Amino acid sequence: MPSGAAVIRYDGARGVVWRIKYVDAGGRQVKETLGRADAGWTKRKAEASLRARLTDVERDGYRKPEALTFAGFAERFMGEHVPGRNLKRSTLVDYRLTIDRHLVPDVELGDLSRRPELVERYVTGRLAVGLAPKTVCNHLALLGRMFRVAIRWRLVTANPVEMVDPPRGDGPEPEVMSEVEIARLLAAYRQLEADAADGEREWWAIARRVVTVALGTGLRRGELLGLRWSDLSLLDRRLAVRQAWVRSEMTTPKSRTSRRVVHLVEGGHVLAALEEPWQASRFRGDNCPVFGHPLLGTPLDPSKLSRSYMKPALAAAKITKPFRVWHGSGTRHSPTRRRSTRPPTCRCGRATRTGRSPSGTSTRRRSGSRERLSAARPGSSLRSADRYQVPVPTASPLLCPPARKQGSAGDS
Question: Engineering a disulfide at 226: which of 143, 159, 244, 408 sits with its beta carbon 3.0 to 4.6 angstroms away?
Fold first, then answer.
């Protein structure tokens, strides 16, 4: 047994308590309390724990964890670990909000690592105040990552999140707008556009086009606002998703499979909604946004698009069922999307279904990803407005110049 290492029996008022004493890799004398005899601790079990700890000191250079609060470690995590991970700005903001609003208990880091029941209590409390199971799982994922970093830094020896079962919950079925509701919504946008003052009519026209493309393609709000003219090929009826406008910066799409190409149906409302800004905008450079500020050519404010235009249009259309605007349950899984896009086709006109392109080269295919597009009937498009006797969306007279003759310059 190394010098300074020993098993200590302590006879206290509540019974016998077993402790161990040793010198850590930093040369500091350490005493650890293992447990009471009535909890199953014996001299033999304490000696085994001491041997295991001495092995950690000799093999891994173990040092007693510092007396650090979780709040103090969270600041070190955000200041020393996160900046080197090359994370998106939106992810950094989410980390900071989650830590500041939820994950800062007034306990020591080492105490929290030894007491997984505190994490269990946190999960129960967050669910009780109305947070969704998915949100709580996101919190646990961040907390687990923080403790993995703490273990690497030799601040703690255990990750309590690994001992906690994440909350389960299928959640309610997502609310999706029906074709009748979509027709009412588009009609409401056109009516609000017609009734708006001259200074606002142009903005209502932009909002209507954004919603029309969202309903027909399933693009996220950030992907719509990040769309540039270089991402569009109107003659080939093709739209590429390469970036997104999120939290006032242009960044990559949400995931790897979010980088995709959407093929549009000829003669559909989506294609018409994309042609309108091309005819009206003064900003047609490759890097200019498709849906940009009419005077500045800069990306739009996402919150204003939802607050000032989408919500009044929903109220005018008398759509009151709960769903998250611009989220998966609202526009991204609408029935019109399935009829306004089509899968890529080979030269003979048949949809390519296998993992190889018509030329024989290998193409990546991900099962279940959002990149998979449903087949569309020939000539089908966003026809809800036609089916329910709602006038077909037309170009705003304020934005669109007179129709050009075929073959004229700029038809692209």
Answer: 244
Tell me the CATH number of domain 179-347+370-387, given options 2.60.200.30, 1.20.200.10, 1.10.443.10, 3.40.190.10: 1.10.443.10
- Global pTM value: 0.59
**Alpha-carbon span 387 to 163, nearest angstrom:** 55
- Stretch 182-198: mean pLDDT: 94
CATH topology of domain 70-163: DNA polymerase; domain 1 (1.10.150)
Strand partners, 17: 10, 36
Q: Which amino acid is at 115?
A: R
Q: Can you give the C-alpha Rg of the chain in angstroms?
A: 30
Residues 6+ positions from 216 with CB-CB distance below 8 Å: 264, 268, 269, 270, 273, 336, 337, 340, 341, 381, 382
CA–CA separation, 336 and 367 (whole Å)? 22
Asked whether the predicted pLDDT for residue 27 surpasses 60, the reply is yes
